[in-house]
Amino acid sequence: MKKFLAFxxxxxxxxxxxxxxxxxxxxxxxxxxxxxxxxxxxxxYNRVKNEIDSWNAKDIYAxxxxxxxxxxxxxxxxxxxxxxxxxxxxxxxxxxxxxxxxERWNYAYWFQDxxxxxxxxxxxxxxxxxxxxxxEQNGIKNIGYEDEDCYDKDMNYxxxxxxxxxxxxxxxSNVAKRLQEESYIKNKFxxxxxxxxxxxxxxxxxxxxxxxxxxxxEADTFIKAMKQLGFID
Length: 233
Known about the structure:
Blueprint: H1 2-35, H2 40-53, E1 60-69, E2 74-75, E3 78-79, E4 82-90, H3 102-105, E5 115-118, H4 126-137, H5 165-181, H6 184-189, E6 195-198, H7 204-213, H8 220-228
Parallel strand pairs: 1-6
Antiparallel strand pairs: 1-4, 2-3, 4-5
Helix pairs in contact: 2-5, 5-7
């Protein structure tokens, strides 16, 4: 009887230790999941590529990556945060306008059927949640804040948007560049197509982002048109 009780006691102790060990492993796994570093560019790449995969229009001539910040865009306690949407324009929509025409290249003339990737105007948006976790992991603080010295003595804007904007813009530009370098866009549509990265004002930094995004000159006609139209120097 005593041997049986001793054996039972030892078995109970071992079972308890095993359960505790499994719990520790589970908790450690959850902790690691919470602290995994976010690869923002990889996330955006997969989201964007998944959306473009579904596009079936035959006469797409340009793709829009719209990155914009606005004081009306809020996330938790942050204001003036950024949005990222994608869309495209077609030859039929621009009525086959001249290659250097404003109707062809100015986003204001596009039908703007935007697909949100990061959208703080939604009640819940996965992309926005991931973006802000990425900000936190990379020590990017004061999101939406913009220094007063963003203008030079002649009141020319020399800034790069509010905190968080340029960081997102850079990631978006690199995603577009990857799509071009992998020939994904060319293979998808049967020809090279520019990815135009922009805001509403065609700021100098979004023009630079567009140039980076189209490493084989895919956006040369866009750049030429915008210079001719006086949107950029």
